């Protein structure tokens, strides 16, 4: 039987804040196999959660800020290939990314950041564009560009069937903050 190909589903947040008239965006610096890289607060979907919940969770885990997605910027697909260290093999991953913008919430003092995350950092558009060699993915700029031109889609574009919220062995719903616990209707989750 042939193995079915599956893309890796990820989420990302584009978060803007005004600093004395200068628009800045929240990114993370993270240690990777390829050295220190910049990325949006981003990560993988976990069992038992929808994309908005994953984005809120990943933003908190990587930046110590609460985040409420309010719109979809876009859905992006990209392929990443690189040599696997110590092996004569190529790592070949296709990512399907859901990018959101929304409301930045409270900072959680003392919140431990995910493993590999060095720090959260606010950068201007010019600083982001000047640091492309440090970007973990070309999607960082693509999502930023789409955000800056005002591309937005309603959260109702995504529908999550109740079956997703069925108990999974690795489900994380018991550790989510009350505002992030799965609801029956996707549009009322956040």
Indicate the topology.
Blueprint: E1 8-14, E2 16-19, E3 22-32, E4 35-39, E5 42-44, H1 51-63, E6 65-83, E7 90-107, E8 117-124, H2 125-130, H3 139-148
Parallel strand pairs: 1-7
Antiparallel strand pairs: 1-5, 2-3, 3-4, 3-8, 6-7
Structure overview:
The protein has 190 residues and is α+β, with helices and mostly antiparallel strands. Helix content is 15%, strand content 39%. The strands form two sheets. The chain has a four-stranded mixed sheet with strand order 5-1-7-6, with helices on both faces. Strands 2, 3, 4 and 8 form a four-stranded antiparallel sheet that branches. The radius of gyration is 17 Å and the shape is globular. The protein starts with 7 loop residues before the first strand and ends in a 42-residue tail after the last helix. It is an enzyme of class 3 (hydrolase). GO terms for molecular function: nucleoside diphosphate phosphatase activity; ribonucleoside triphosphate phosphatase activity; thiamine diphosphate phosphatase activity. Residues 4-145 form the Nudix hydrolase domain. Belongs to the Nudix hydrolase family. NudJ subfamily.
Considering the chains and any ligands shown, give keywords for the structure.
190 residues, alpha+beta, Nucleoside Triphosphate Pyrophosphohydrolase, four-stranded mixed β-sheet, four-stranded antiparallel β-sheet, 8 strands, disordered C terminus, EC 3.6.1.-
Short description:
The chain is an alpha+beta fold and 190 residues long. The protein has helices at residues 51-63, 125-130, 139-148, and strands at 8-14, 16-19, 22-32, 35-39, 42-44, 65-83, 90-107, 117-124. The strands form 2 sheets. A 4-stranded mixed beta sheet has the order 5-1-7-6, sandwiched between helices.
């Amino acid at each position: 039987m042939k193995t079915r190909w599956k893309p890796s589903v990820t989420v990302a947040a584009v978060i803007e804040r005004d600093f004395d008239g200068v628009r800045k965006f929240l990114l993370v610096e993270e240690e990777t196999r390829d050295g220190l890289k910049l990325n949006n607060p981003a990560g993988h979907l976990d069992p038992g959660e929808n994309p908005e919940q994953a984005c809120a969770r990943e933003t908190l885990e990587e930046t110590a800020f609460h985040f409420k997605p309010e719109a979809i910027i876009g859905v992006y697909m990209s392929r990443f290939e690189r040599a696997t260290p110590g092996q004569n093999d190529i790592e070949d991953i296709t990512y399907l990314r859901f990018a959101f913008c929304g409301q930045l919430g409270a900072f959680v003092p003392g919140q431990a950041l995910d493993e590999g995350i060095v720090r959260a950092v606010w950068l201007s558009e010019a600083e982001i564009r000047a640091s492309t060699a440090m970007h973990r993915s070309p999607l960082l700029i693509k999502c930023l560009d789409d955000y800056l031109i005002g591309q937005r889609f309603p959260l109702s574009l995504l529908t999550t069937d109740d079956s997703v919220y069925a108990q999974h062995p690795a489900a994380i719903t018991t550790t989510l903050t009350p505002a992030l616990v799965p609801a029956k209707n996707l549009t009322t989750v956040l």
